Structure formats: structure tokens, C-alpha cells
Amino acid sequence: MISKKTNEPNKDKDGKQPGSGEDLSHLTPWQQANLEYKRQKGEDTGWSPTIIEGKTEPDETDDPEPTEETAELGTRPDSGTAESFADRLPKVKYQRNTLLYRRMAIIILLLSIPLAGVIYYVSPLAKLAGVTVTGTQKVSAATVAKEADFTADNDIWPQFIKRNQHLAAVKQAEPRVKSVSVAIKDFNHFVIDVKEYQEVAVLAHNNLYSPILENGVVLTENMKNPTEKMPILENFKDQQLILQVLKAYQGLSQQLQEAVSQIKYAPTAGNQELLQLFMNDGNQVIVNISNLADQMKYYSQVAKDMEKKGIIDMEVGIFSYPYGNEKTVDSTAETTGSSEEEPLAEPQSQQ
Prior knowledge:
Elements: H1 29-41, H2 49-52, H3 85-122, E1 130-134, H4 141-148, H5 156-161, H6 163-173, E2 177-185, E3 189-196, E4 199-205, E5 208-213, E6 232-234, H7 239-250, H8 254-259, E7 260-265, E8 274-279, E9 284-288, H9 292-295, H10 299-305, E10 310-313, E11 319-322, H11 326-340
Parallel strand pairs: 1-3, 4-6, 6-7, 9-10
Antiparallel strand pairs: 2-3, 4-5, 7-8, 8-9, 10-11
Helix pairs in contact: 4-6
């Protein structure tokens, strides 16, 4: 009988390929023959016996895992166990819910702003509830509120935007008002704050007296007798001249201001700024407007050296003489005669 040749490679009894120490008993005959053929050709097989056994060979080209010394900064060490999808699911839900809540909050905010505006507009808070006036002294609070002409129960914001027009009407109607402002209190209440010009002097005219404000304005108010401790101005007609005299007067010390009872404008042909001051101690002072603050500081010493009450002339230099002296009569007639016949100044009002 003729025996058939097989393509199986020669094997020893242990199933090893002759010339190799590798155990091939676990391979099929075809795999053993293919492996021998590839080795004879010097070619690499497309498969590895170790893969079939369920084993894996380390890839020589793979980089070794970094040790603690070679690990780069910022790399997270391998925990050794992969996180499952079931473990990651709660985190994904939390992130999605957080994003959802954030979007809902933005939408609610955008919708609530116009809604709040509509509610405010139709509510009583959008209407003016009332007006209060503060800071008044001589000016009537009721007059200020009337001239401001703010209307209660009307929309508050249109009136507040046009507040300058309302406040300008107050200043125009009341010359005593120096400044006026308005503020909102308790959401829908106006508070008008007023600051007034102070009265600094009194103008004598036609046996009446009118107050003079610090800005030189003579009020149209009349009083029979001055009640304040303020100097009485006589024979003044020009508001600018009144301002000039008041500025010089305010340059005096408080003691000297209180010592002056009356200031009379007494110009001469050669001197248009001559003043005659009547003092509370009974003396009279003749002085120029421009020199009032500088020369009046010597008044106390000169008056102390006088034996009798009289006139202190500061027009040119400083000298004094008692009443009844012939020189006093001539000097008084010369300096005051031209002004005594002039009519008294009429009060002026601010335009």
C-alpha cells in the first residue's frame, strides 16, 4: 500500500517543531504548517500563537508607563479602575440640571423686569403722594409749594424730570430764595429744600425801612421800625453801590459791625465814595468806602483817646474833634450839605 504524504510538518512526540523550543501542540495542523512555511520563507506571520492562547505580548514600541519620578506635571495618576457609565450617570444628570436651572433663572429674570415695571406703573407708588417744604425761615412754605406747582396724584416721574422748571418759578417769585432743590422720599413723596439769602442791612426811605439781602437786593417789604440788629443804610439808590458798601462792611470785625448803627452815603463834589457812619457809642466816622475795612480797625483806639464824643475823620489820615467845634461845623456842612437834600433811595427788587 502506498502511503500519502501529508503537509504536516515533522513534529516530535511533544508536538514541538524540530529546531524550535516552542510548544505548538495547541495549534491546528494548518496553523503549524503555515507557521513552518513562513519561517522557511523568512516572513512574519500575521498572527501570533500567544494571541490564540489568550495571552498578550507587550509591545516593545509602547512607552513604559511613567513612574513617580518621570510623570509629567498635571497628569492624573491612574486609579487602576475605569469609571463605569452607571457611576458617571448621576454627574451627567447634575450638570444637565444645573444648566437647565440657570437658563430658567435667566428667562424668569428677563420676563420679571417688564412685569415689575407694569405693576409699578399701575400702582399708587407711581403717583405723587404729597410735597413737603423744609429750610424756610422768612419765606412761607405754603408759598413755595404753590409756586413749585407739583400736582399730587399725578405721575411722579414726569414731574421729577421737569423739576428744574418748577424750581425756577420758585426763585423768580421769591427773591429771598438763594437755592432750592427737590428729592424723592418714601418712593412717592417730594421734599423741597430751600436756602434763603440772609438779611444783612436795612434801607431807610420815607420813614419806612426795607430789608436788604446779602446779594444787595432791597425787598419791597416795609416795616415801620427795624427790629434786627443790622446797620441802617440811608441815601442809597444804586444796588451796585449797596453791594460795594456791604462787602466793605462785612470786612469789619464782628465787634465793629455791632458798633455801627447807621451808614449814610454822603458824597461831595470831590469825593463820590464818602460815607458817614453813626456809631452806637455816640461818635460819628467819616471814611471812604474803599478804606472802610483798613481804617476802621483803628477806631477803638482813637475813640478811647477822645475826651468827649465827636467826629473821627478818616477821609485823609485820621484825626478827631468833639461836637460843637467850629471845625466840626464847617467840615460837616462841607461833606454832608450836598447830600441832605437828595431824596432817600426807593427799595429795589430782583428781576
